[in-house]
Specification:
alpha/beta; 352 residues; single chain; 10 strands; 18% strand; 15 helices
Length: 352
């Protein structure tokens, strides 16, 4: 009996010691996080060229974080797909093997189908509408939804409206696109857009598009002037048609567990830096887009700007895409309505 009692006492002592140790370690960890006196380094990977406005905006974010933290937080930025494609860096951030990542929003639809609504043709018709939605209720819903997949949304760099570009022939109306092999993102809506335009949509990873255009695997794509120029795609293109069929934002996210482990002070610094970088980067993106368009013209790319009547044809040609995708489980009708209500317009206003 005494032996049994002694064993029990020893076990109780061991359990008490372990509990004390765990509690003590937890307190130490909490104190370390609360004080956050140590310097930390975060890595941010993305695929765009270092000269693109999204990349420059990300660099500005890193600069602001370091400044606001008095050098305690360093954000090392990796552009040009150095750490992987959009999909690869986003998945790395989700796993936590990378702290931060950025991707264009069409490539994020696998995490939440709310992004599918952003892809709808002409749901955003100008930058003012984009900013109103991103900064308002539609953007807040996305932020909350992304947390379910393990991400903390830091900010949305301005990417720009996509134009139709190709190296085969001038395009004035959708009928001129018949049979053209057009590179798209993984967005099913963008693929449907080009199907309605009469082209042959071909999903290709961004890092492979230049070569695909060179080799004739695809004959065109849809993208913003600035991204095309900064990626040297003007070297394998001849024609552009300014139809603004789709707007793409980028999204900078952080692994949520890593974000939550930071002190409130460090969390606030990162979010404040994201907010300031947003405003700064938007101005840069708009200036750069105008500049890149002129660079295209100077390079010899033939740019066609449809008339108001022709733009109506482009819009009405793409309208069936709404019928195909605005349904539960895809582009959620309720979320589409929230976007339209936020912008103060209706579907009929867009396509009339």
């Amino acid at each position: 009996m005494k032996k049994v009692k002694s064993t029990v006492i020893i076990l109780l002592v061991i359990l008490a010691f372990l509990s004390f140790t765990l509690i003590g370690n937890n307190v130490l960890n909490q104190n370390a996080i609360a004080g956050q006196s140590e310097e930390i380094t975060l890595r941010l990977g993305q695929s765009k060229a270092g000269s693109h406005p999204v990349s420059i905006g990300i660099n500005k974010f890193a600069e602001l974080v370091e400044e606001k933290s008095n050098g305690k937080i360093t954000v090392d930025t990796f552009h040009d797909s150095l750490l992987g494609s959009d999909r690869e860096v986003i998945e790395s951030a989700q796993r936590g093997s990378l702290e931060l990542a950025s991707s264009s929003t069409p490539n994020m639809t696998s995490f939440t189908n709310y992004f599918t609504a952003w892809d709808l043709p002409y749901i955003f018709e100008n930058k003012e509408e984009v900013y109103k939605a991103v900064d308002g209720k539609p953007g807040e819903i996305i932020r909350k939804e992304m947390e379910k997949s393990g991400f903390k949304v830091i900010f949305f760099p301005d990417y720009g409206f996509r134009q139709v570009v190709n190296n085969v022939r001038p395009v004035k109306l959708p009928k001129d696109m018949a049979g053209l092999k057009i590179r798209t993102t993984n967005s099913r809506i963008e693929q449907a857009d080009f199907s309605e335009f009469g082209a042959s949509p071909t999903p290709v990873a961004w890092s492979e598009v230049f070569t695909a255009l060179q080799q004739g695997t695809v004959e065109g794509e849809g993208n913003s002037y600035s991204l095309l120029w900064d990626s040297k795609h003007q070297e394998v293109l001849n024609y552009a048609t300014e139809v603004n069929y789709n707007y793409s934002s980028d999204i900078v996210v952080m692994n949520k567990d890593k974000f939550d482990a930071l002190s409130k002070e460090y969390q606030d610094i990162i979010m404040e830096a994201g907010l300031e970088a947003t405003e700064w980067q938007r101005d840069l993106a708009n200036e750069r887009e105008d500049e890149a368009k002129q660079q295209f013209i100077d390079y010899g790319i033939e740019i066609y700007e449809p008339t108001e009547k022709e733009m109506k044809i482009w819009k009405q040609t793409a309208e069936p895409v709404w019928d195909q995708f605005v349904k539960e489980g895809v582009a959620e009708p309720e979320y589409v309505d929230i976007i339209l209500e936020t912008l103060g317009k209706t579907r009929e206003d867009i396509f009339k």
